[in-house]
Amino acid sequence: MAEDNSASLSTLVVTGQQTPYIRLSETATKTDQDLLDTPFSVNIVNQNFIQDLQAETLADVYPYVVGLSQSGNIANSFTLRGLSSSLQNVQIDGLPGLASRFGSPSTANIERVEVLKGPASVLYGLMEPGGLINIVTKKPQAESQTSLSFSGRSYASSDSGFGSDVGGTFTYDSTGALTEDKDLLYRFIGSVENIDSFRDGVNDNNVYLYPTLSYQINPDMNATIGMEYIRERRDDDDGLVAVNNDIDQTASLSTRYQRDGDSSNDDGLALFGRLENQINDSTLFRLNLRSVYHKDDRELYENNKVNDAATTLTRRDRYQVNKRQYHFFDANLSHKFETGELFHNTLIGINGGFERSDFDRKRFGSVIIPDINVFHPLSNSGTPKALKPSTHRITDDYNLGLYAQDTVELNDYVSVMLGGRFDTQRTRYTEKDVGKPDKFEKQNTKKFLPQAGLVFRATDEVSLYMSHSESFTPNSIQRRNTDGKSFDPELGKQNEFGIKAALLDDRLNFTASSFKITKTNITEKDDLNKEYKLVGELESKGTEFEIQALPIENWQIRIGYANTDSFISHSLESKTEGNRNAFAPKHNGFIWTRYNIPKPVWGGNVGTSLGLNYQSSQYTSSDKATRVELPSHTRVDLGFYYDIKQYRFALNIENLFDETYYTGGSKDTIIYPGDPRLITLSFKTTL
C-alpha cells in the first residue's frame, strides 16, 4: 500500500485507486519535515481521489475535508474551523493570486490540495485565521505521457429531468522531455467546459490553459516557468430568497430572479516562476514568483430586498468592472545543522508583494421597478427607477514580511518549533466618484507575529503535539477612529493540541485535534454616534478527527468528523453576542469507502465507491434579524469504475437520493441551493 518509505505518514491523505499515501507536505513548515513531527493539522486530497469524485472544481472536494464548509459560489467562499476566508486563504504552490474570482478553481491543473488548519500568517502573510488551502499544481515529468479525458453530465431530478440540463468537459494533458538528456521538460494542460445548470437560464462556458517548462540547469539547480490562462463566461445567478427568513418559504430550486443575459465574466492571466538550488546536502534555497492580471465584470439586476408582506423581491441595478493585479514573491533558505546533541531544521525567508484592486461601479444602487413576485417572477421585466453616479475605487497594497523558524530535536522523542514574522503593510486608497473631488487615504500597518509548537514522539508510529499560531488582517482603510487614525489590524490566535498515528504498516491512520481560535480587533460602527470602534471579537473552538484505513487489500475506508462552536464573543450590540457565525455548522462529517474487485472482470479492473457527507444546520448571517437557518442534510454519492489497459470509464451519481440542501449565500436575499441528483459519465485514455 505504501511504496515510499522516505518518511512516516503524519497526516491523513485521501486516496483512491490503491495508490501510495503522500508522505510529506511542505505547506505547514515550508520544509521537508516529517508531518508526524509537525505540530499542526494538515489534510491532503490527492489527484486520484479528485478523479474518484469526478470533481471538476475545488469546491467539489469540500464535503470530504474535515472542518471545511462551502459558503457561496466564488473562489474564497468557504469557512475553515468555523471562520470565513479571504482570497489570501487560497494559495497556488505557496503564493496567493488566483487567476479567477467568481468561480471555484478548476481541478484540471491540480495535483493535490493541502489544507492547513488554523492561522498561518507567520509563513504566508496576511490572511484570515481559519486556515489555508494550498493548491499544488501539476508539474512537468521526464517520462512522456499524454491523456485525453471527457465527461458528460446530466441532472436527473424533479427540478431538472434527465437530459434537460446537460454539460461536458474535455481535458488534454501532455508532458515529457524536449531534449535527449531530459534537462528540459514541458507540460501542457488545456480544458474546455460547457455546463448547463439546473437553475433556469444559467450556463457556464469556460476555457483553461496551463503551459509549463522546467529546466534542470545542473544536478543541483532547477528552474520552472509557466502560465495560467482562464476565460470564464457565465450567466449570473443570485440564487433564491426566503420570505420571512424562512427556508420553507422559498420558490422552486430552479427559480432565478435575474434577466436573460445578466452575466458575470472572468479573464485571468497568471505568470509564475520557481527556482530551487540544493546548495549542499544540508542547505536549500528556493525562490517563488507569481504575477496575475485579472479582470471581471458583472452586469445584472441583483437581489436586494425581500418584502415579506407582499412576497415580492426588490432588485437593484449593478454594472461593475473590476481589474486586479497581483505580484508576489517568496524567497527562503532552509538549513539543517547540529549544535552539540541538538539537531536543527532552520528556515529563514522574506515574502510579500504588490496588489492593486481597481473597482469601477459604472451603475449601482438604482432600484428596479416594479418589484417581482418571489414565487412567480417575471425576471425579464423592470427598469431602473433612476440612474445613480458611478463610483471608482482604487486600492494599492504593498506588503513585506521577514520570517524565521527553527525546529529543534531535543532528543529522540521531543522536538520544539519556534518561529516569528515581522510584517509591514502599506495601503493607498483612492476614490474617484463622479461629481466629487478625488479622495485619498493612506494606512501603514506593522506587526510581529510568533508561533510555537511542541511534539512528543511517543513511538515511531504515534506523536502528540501542541502549538500556538497567529494571523493578522489589516482593518479597512475606509474605517477610522475618532482621531482620524487607522485601526490596528484584526488578529487571530489559535491554541491546538492533538495526536497523530500511522499504525499497522500504514493500514490504519488516525489524527485527532482540539483547538480554540479567537479573532479580535474587529471594527464595528456605533449607531449612536456613527463612529467605528475596535470592539468585535469572534471565537471558534472544537474538535476534529479523521481515520483512514485499509482493512483488507482492495478496500479503503475514510471517516472524518468535526464539532465546531463558532460564535460572536463580544460586540457593541449585546443582543448579537453568542450568535453563531455564518456558515459555521456545529457538526460536519463524512464516510467514504472504495472497494476494488480483486479479480479481473471482462479483462479489466472494477471498483465502486460510496460516500456520505453530513452537515448540521447553519445560518446565512450572524444577525438574527436577517439570517436564515439552512437545514441539516446528508448527501450520498456513488461511483463505479472500470479500467482496462490504457482506458478508464467511470459513472458517478452525486446526491443519489436527490436531497434538497443549500451551499451558501447571504442573509435572506441570496441562498444557493446545492445540486440535485447529478449523473456524470467520464472516459479517460492515456496515449
TrEMBL record:
GO biological process: siderophore transport
GO function terms (MF aspect): siderophore uptake transmembrane transporter activity; signaling receptor activity
Alphabetical UniProt keywords: Cell outer membrane, Ion transport, Iron, Iron transport, Membrane, Receptor, Signal, TonB box, Transmembrane, Transmembrane beta strand, Transport
Domain (TonB-dependent receptor plug): residue spans on this chain: 35-131
UniProt superkingdom: Bacteria
One GO CC term on file: cell outer membrane
Signal peptide (from-to): none
Membrane topology type: Multi-pass membrane protein
Family matches, as InterPro entries: Beta-barrel_TonB, Beta-barrel_TonB_sf, Plug_dom, Plug_dom_sf, TonB-dep_rcpt-like, TonB_sidphr_rcpt
TonB-dependent receptor-like beta-barrel domain mapped to chain residues: 215-656
Location in or out of the cell: Cell outer membrane
Family of the protein in this entry: Belongs to the TonB-dependent receptor family.
Full protein name: Iron complex outermembrane recepter protein
Source organism of this protein record: Methylophaga sulfidovorans
